[in-house]
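User: Fold this, then the next.

Assistant: Folding the first:
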Amino acid sequence: MVEIYRNSALTIGAAAAHKAADCMLHTRSPTSRDMKPKLKLSKDSGSDDIVEIASSVLRREDLANLIGYGPLQSRAWAFQERILSPRILWYGRRQIYWQCLCGFQSADGTPSGGVAFPSSEDYIYPIITQRLFFSQHYNDGSTRFSEEELLEINHEYQSMVMEYCTRALSYPNDKLPAFSGIAALLHKAVGGHYLAGIWSKLFRENLLWHNVGSTAPHKKQYRAPSWSWAVTDEEMLLSYDNLSRLASTPYDPILLPHHIELSSENPYGAVKYAHIIVDTLTLKLIHLVNPESSPLIPFSPRTSRQKEGETKIQSGGSVAPISIETSFKCAKLRTSYNHNWDEDTPDWSAVSPLEYKVMLVGLERRSEKYGDGTSVLGSVSCLKCLILQEDPEDAKVCRRVGRADLNIYYREVDEPDLDPWFASDWWERETLKLI
């Protein structure tokens, strides 16, 4: 399939067809938005008292609307067919549209570059398509990419995953196969190993996905490991948290051996089972009785005890300002945390509650304005983490159940030294199997 579309002279897309039986060739309807009937304001109106009636309900067809709202663009399999095709002739209901690596055109002559056409950067993914898939030097394997270039490629790859995950699949187990053509071509450029949607060379960045504004329920029937975006059902608004580059620190997780059991001979297709082994820093996740008034975040040294009594926890994604004094040698810092559970909040009142821990994925530094009442330009060190659930029989076997961040705010001149904190008994260096 990859080579068929990639080497095609032209792909024809039925952009307005809802199903295979729908007709692709249409006669332009006289009841279209172009009709503007004229009405007199009154029966005695003169020639100057006439108004034209134009519909404000019907959306005028253009390629941007077909791409954004058309039925073909809701189908998951059609995504890689679009990406892998160097030239596409789109059939709408009003007219035809041309797409190639250089841009777009429509039959009515609408100037390209306006709102009637998609944004090339968001739609064509120019780095991956122009510099990789359709480059003259790509097939001979002579193209080499710097670390910065790989990060640019990964940014577009993650954008592709985000767009792909908004689409529907008739068969949910096709989640990885319907994306496999893109992964197969990208592998030559990225290198390393392809791990059920995650690149081993960029595994830290690729692990930091979440569903925007909602949960991300894991598919009950096994389709992918818990740390892969493919574990969630289709049509989700997936996003990645690493907007800026993750810093390189001595505390970064290290990817060790992995195991992928494939469902077919396609190395980029469906999987029966997968796990990765990581050497990483973790924190125990505790459940606070009253997080609003407690000076602690829900991460604690391993000597801390959970309080007894009625339990209460903040909802996923909430942010609570706190103050940490001893951890940073009494430095005046403003910190906050947020967490997002992939599925429902755990039942903390269970007789035998499951154990949770937080795995450090990376450190992100950025500048932003913050303050109470006034905006002060400062810096933020954000610890990007995964929330893991321990296996009841083996604490070293874990599955991903959510995302968590710990934000540390400070002035540029007062950057805290995190080394003593990472070396304290808050953190533990562990070798974990993530399933």
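Now the next one, as you asked:
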Amino acid sequence: LKPQNLLVDGKGAIKLADFGLARAIGIPVRVYTHEVVTLWYRAPEILLGTQRYSMGVDIWSIGCIFAEMASKKPLFQGDSEIDELFRLFRILGTPTEAEWPGVSQLPDYKPTFPKWKGSSLAEKMANYMDHDAIDLLEAMLVYDPARRISSRKALHHPYFDDVSFPGIFFHAKGSPCWR
């Protein structure tokens, strides 16, 4: 996902375009190429070389787009994969095994990466987002894809309390579907 593939109509409804790299929901995690997402919206697991990823990469991209819509500039504006990674690390801190089990085993992880503590994402976005928006953004930009907020939980986040989703219903398993 990237802003160029989001179409917004006069009523503010968003439609997704360009499904060239789309995958079916429910298919087990598979091996894919790592160059699937525009650099500024690329999830850290892809930047670190994993070939097995899931819908969490889209949640990360949505988080980056969400921040960009609020601030009117990309959150992580790297000009290479390593620059992009280091921009993530400077803001979010260099990931550790404690917060992302298995990170040090990813193909492109280097134990020599600088160990940044990170600045505060909340402070960086405070002039552009309210508390609920920042909380949702922080849930989308969690390093560990297994701990990243799901689309369903995102739709139920307090940020959306005053928004109705008239075309959405939920399957028994909890995944959102459109009517």
